[in-house]
Amino acid sequence: MRIELSVNGNAIEVDVEPTTMLVDVLRDHVALTGPRVTCGVGLCGTCTVLLDGEPVSSCILMAPLALGKQITTIEGIPRDDEVVSCFDRQHAFQCGFCIPGMVLTAKNMVEHGTATSREQIREGLGGNLCRCGCYTKIVDAIEEAAR
Amino acid sequence: MSWQMPSTVDEALRLKADNPGATVIAGGTFLGILSGQGLLDNDEWISLQNISELKTLGTEGDLSVGAMVTHRRLELTPVVREDWPGLAQAFGVVASPRIRNVATIGGVLADADYASDPPSMLVASRAVAEVASVRGMRRVPIEDLIAGHYETTLADDELITRVVVPRPRGKGVYRKFRTRSREDRPTVAVAAAREDDRVRVVVGAVSDRPQHYADICAAWKPGDEDSAREIGAAYAEAIRCIGDGRGSAAYRRRVVGVEVRRVLMQVGP
Amino acid sequence: MTDARITADIRYSVDHKVPGMWHLRLVRAGIPAGTVTAIDATAVDDEVAVITPEDVLPHGKYGCQIADQHVLASEPKYLGDPVVAVVAATEKAARQAAAAIDVRYETSPAVFDELEAVQPSAPLVHAAHVTSNSDSAYFEMRPQDGTNVCHHFRIRTPGLRGRHEPNLLIDLPSPGDDRLADAFADADVVFEETFRTPAASHVPMEPHATVAEWVDGRLEVTTGTQTPFNLRQDLAVLFGLPAESVRVVAAPMGGSFGAKTFMRTEAIAAVAAKAVGRPVRCVLDRDEVFGEVTRHASTVRMRIGARRDGKFVAKQMLAYLNTGGYADCGPGVAQKMGYAGVGPYRFDHVAVDSYCAYTNLPPAGAFRGYGAMQSAWACERLVDMLADELRIDPVELRRMNLLRDGDAFCTGEIMRDTHFEELLDDVAKAVAWQDGRKGKGIAIMLKGMQTPSRAEAAIRSLPDGRFEVHSGTADMGQGSVEALTRIVADLLDVHPDRITVPCPDTDLVPYDTRTTSSRSTHMMSRALAEAARELRNGGTVGRGRIVNEGGLDPDTGEGIASSHWHQGAASAHVEIDDETGVIDVKTLYASSYAGTVVNRPAAELQNEGSMIMALGSSLFEEISYQDGQLVNPNLSDYNIASALDCASIQHRLMESPGAEVHGLGETAVPPVPPALGNAVASLGYRPRELPMSPERVLASRVDGRPAAR
């Protein structure tokens, strides 16, 4: 199936089986490494991308379901973005494998004004897991970005 | 492999009637997991993604939810939060915001996953699904729609097009009891919807489908702790619980009694 | 510059791809024990290479401590043991081929539980035990032939040595027939209990990923590994090559926690690359990561004797580690678990028997905490039980018996730079211990560092005025590049922008034992100090080399267990829903001795991360098996802690001016479960087994009946 996707503002045309997951399209056909596969069942958030600004799990999203939507990966976020800077300033990362997903989720929270308290931020990070255990600093970073 | 994207319900129904073996995909979270894990292998797909009439949400009178309305929308729409708070709550605790952004009400009912949060609240709320096919439309209460583990009473050519939830006549509460991470699926799910001085208690996640016992609920005295305890004990006695990594059958039975009592105290007096 | 980890400008091992590479999939045993009788690959396409156990037989056996593993198993030792490999041009083709292969088996009896495995009647997982020639077998192994015990580590303090004792104890001997009974002669109270911990998964977010390639007769492997030099040696031996003919590049890892140590998928990837004459990539699926290597399940029987006034007299411990079908570094874990179980206390007599036992489960190996978590759980729960018995405050009972500078540990080594009492006071204060102890618990522990150990490093001055740091320290997420950069910038007094740290490449960097046991910052900082000194004396390269001697006698435990000690304590305040057993953690606090901190945020993250992982181990993390089948190898059925689970966490890095750098990667893991367990116990429960699931909590009620209302 030939599908045209909009990835980070660029039109991308790929020929894939319709059941190909969006994360595989992004990694294998668009050569982006920001979206990652960890759990493969939509639970952990390392595959997070934004679809029209809303976070989704790209490891369980069949690629055609993203037709007509703006797909944003970490590579599409400016390097000087405020949320990115806050993660850097707060040293909110260790291995970093989960961090692009965290940043994208955080951007959505900050933009919707749903990062008003530490508890609300923790709720909003639902399904974004970090095995290194950087949560405290990640919450610090999002709190700073929301100010 | 084919991926068809009809733009009207009628077109979708015709496609499904012509090819009952095709898999209908709504939000695609559950099917995405199955397909990704190699548990579902189908070459023909009918996606509802372009059918705008399935994305409408009506809040005048009863709540009328198109099958493609996402969990997130039900969780966040102010009038739903205001007028159907128990329902907004149940949809708001499903998995993560990422899943709720994609997963739909039609999808969660068609999956009939025993541990999903919304079904028990929908049953408690007397929700009715509108089920359509080229043969016509029928209205199916949710308790009659979900038949067992991942099993529904939908015929091969039928689609859920809409879910209608009556306006609550009292408080609705959904309690998600977890034994592990706070992001775990429920070990025991309890939904209660009050209807004046009566109540509908539905227990999910402990067996193949939501469990509701009108006869047991009939004994309820609002705000009375003894009555709540007795109903809890009767539910625990009546349900044949499953056991898994989240809790043994015996433990679930115990928690059903506790959680039913608690939910009744929450919706009373 | 924004850190590359935030913006995905970093390339992990799973991002490493080589043009023309093929893909490897493993066919795994469907039985827990037995023999492969037939492999039918007729349904596989001709273009797919199929590698069978017979093909890898000439390579012989490997193993970091016991040579017990073939590259593919003809006699699988666990359900999931790789028996066939397929290599194809695409991942999809490799998957299809793997599914098309039919393997037939003859099954033999299997054993799964560590206590059953040490029974005389247990089926033998391996017929014989051969110590590995690898550098990672750094102490004498004591396999017990004719049993499933591949290593038996013993501690006998001087008064208990030279007695005729059985080689294998299955139970604590009753006082009457105990050859060590006199050890407890001065004790007024003798108390004993059995504790259990389950297998657990490291769950690195990034799976194991390897690319192997043969270039002009040399083997080149790019892989996520904490042990590039051990891997180089073991691969060289497998292929009959000099070590210099193997190149291991340790790509940055998306987490490891011990999962990516020693040989994992590198050997089969190398065999496959040779077979197809192309680079071969192997990436494990999540369920395979769960089964690749686990944390040792354990049973610990512990007896403690004390005088009425609280002074500890003697401790006896029997530890049984479930190392699964292959030993991996289980013998080393058994050793560290053995002495960590003694705890940071003075005893007149100590007798420890730590048994590393084979079973037909997936192999267990290095895991953050390295055995100390399992034995600290037993040690610290038992101290609290004793305190109850003696009616002495648990903090005061510990204080009375803590090791202080100048005291001898059970290994005979004299302790220095001890901070146990400060740590104890700090964690007690954090939960307002003085205001009543309902719902509160504390625990303290010591954990050793890899000893003996050797670190080498070089600093090269580049023509453009920058400095390149050559170090074998692998970056698994702990931030070694950052730490090395800061250390060298400080040593040379230059801006960090002028320091560059390439990832460990055995062709480029000098030898390092491995990046484990929280040793790297401690060892490398000293090697780099030497290198910097040499560089300042002239030339373009400075080299440094640090060797820490030591090690323990496997029969007496005498020697140097650790060239420096990781010292940590934790406290907890909990509430329990007494109808459901659910634990609500109000406060979880850990205090770790850090000496001098190199990079504050990174050090804090190590402490927080350790606590969070240990919180999961305390409350819900557990690998479940049914007849040898791992039944929860996914993140839905195996939970790890989320942001919502750890809101209660606070901690402290205890510094000491001018002190040496202390590793922090694991210090806050072992004290957390017993601190929580002791807090739970203070509310009328008696937890002995991890994790403390609500159901187990209810079942452990002292009065035997869950609350009813």
Which features characterize this protein?
heterotrimer, A: 147 residues, alpha+beta, Ubiquitin-like (UB roll), DNA polymerase, domain 1, 2 domains, five-stranded mixed sheet, 5 helices, B: 269 residues, Uridine Diphospho-n-acetylenolpyruvylglucosamine Reductase, domain 3, Enolase-like, domain 1, five-stranded antiparallel sheet, 14 strands, 36% helix
Sequence-ordered SSE layout with sheet pairings:
The complex is a heterotrimer of chains A (147), B (269) and C (709).
Chain A: E1 2-7, E2 10-15, H1 22-29, E3 48-51, E4 54-57, E5 70-72, H2 82-89, H3 99-112, H4 118-124, H5 135-146
Parallel strand pairs in A: 1-5
Antiparallel strand pairs in A: 1-2, 3-4, 3-5
Helix pairs in contact in A: 2-5, 3-5
Chain B: E1 2-4, H1 9-18, E2 23-25, H2 29-36, E3 44-47, E4 57-58, E5 63-66, H3 71-76, H4 78-83, H5 85-92, H6 97-100, H7 105-111, H8 118-124, E6 128-133, E7 136-141, H9 142-145, E8 146-148, E9 151-152, E10 159-165, E11 172-177, E12 188-195, E13 198-204, E14 211-212, H10 214-217, H11 225-238, H12 249-267
Parallel strand pairs in B: 1-3, 2-3
Antiparallel strand pairs in B: 4-5, 5-10, 6-7, 6-10, 8-9, 11-12, 12-13, 13-14
Helix pairs in contact in B: 11-12
Chain C: H1 4-7, E1 22-28, E2 34-40, E3 49-51, H2 53-56, E4 82-88, H3 91-100, E5 102-107, H4 114-117, E6 149-156, E7 189-197, E8 209-215, E9 218-223, H5 228-239, E10 246-250, H6 266-276, E11 280-283, H7 286-292, E12 297-306, E13 312-324, H8 330-340, E14 349-358, H9 372-390, H10 394-401, H11 420-430, E15 440-448, E16 453-461, E17 467-471, H12 480-492, E18 499-500, H13 520-536, E19 541-548, E20 551-552, E21 559-560, E22 565-576, E23 583-595, H14 600-619, E24 625-626, E25 629-630, E26 649-655, H15 672-681, H16 694-699
Parallel strand pairs in C: 1-11, 9-10, 13-14, 17-18, 23-26
Antiparallel strand pairs in C: 1-4, 2-5, 3-4, 6-14, 7-12, 8-9, 8-11, 12-13, 15-22, 16-17, 16-19, 20-21, 22-23, 24-25
Helix pairs in contact in C: 8-9, 9-15, 12-13, 14-15
